[in-house]
Amino acid sequence: ACIALFVSIYSVTLSDKLLPFILILLGIVFAIIFIVNNPFRFTKPENRFFEALFQTTKILNNILQNKMLFRKLVLNNLFLVILMGLRFYFSCKAIGINIDIFYCYIFTTASAFLRLVPMLQSDIGSRELAVGFLSQSLGLGFKQGVLATAVDRIFEMVWALIGMAVFRNLITRQPLTPT
Questions:
Q1: Contact status, residue 22 vs residue 10, Cβ threshold 8 Å
Q2: What span, in angstroms and rounded, lies between the C-alpha atoms of 45 and 174?
Q3: pTM summary value
Q4: CB-hemisphere CA count at 13 Å for 95?
Q5: Which are the contacts of 127, defined by CB distance < 8 A and separation ≥ 6?
Q6: In angstroms, what CA-CA distances link 73 with 51, 76, 80?
Q7: Could you read off the pLDDT of 139-163 as tens digits, one per residue?
Q8: Taking CA 67 as the corner, what is the angle to CA 62 and CA 73, rounded to the nearest 5 degrees?
Q9: How much of the chain is helix, strand and coil, in % rounded to 5?
Q10: What is the pLDDT of residues 113-149, one digit of tens each?
């Protein structure tokens, strides 16, 4: 959220169309800062939904209390956000869409938040629609946003298959036994 906020603030100097996005990201950043400084304290609930929420906040509090784990998770997520933005940028360039890299980071941030909300089965089409509407609101065109996101999804699948093959071989490799 902080990376997207800084990218959006820089982009606002280029375009006034991003002001609503900046306000939303600013609200998210303030909410994260508030949660970090004031951890939640709940009593044990009886409802299954509230039980899951209770467990989630308990885990979040444990992560926030363990500073070393929190730093590692922040660095890991920072690395992933940078790679996701670059992957989207390269997928746009692969199909000939000239797009600013800052817009790519805004699109990947919106996609990451959209993945957290299970709207459709297996996230089919929701990311494409969100990026399509965002790209249309930024003046890039709905079809270009949907096409770029579809190509990005293909790149993501290729990288996942490569990673699966590499790690499968690492896990199933037979240990060497001396004869």
A1: no
A2: 48
A3: 0.61
A4: 19
A5: 111, 114, 115, 149, 153
A6: 25, 5, 10
A7: 888 888 888 888 888 888 888 898 8
A8: 85
A9: 80, 0, 20
A10: 777 766 666 667 777 888 888 888 878 888 888 888 8
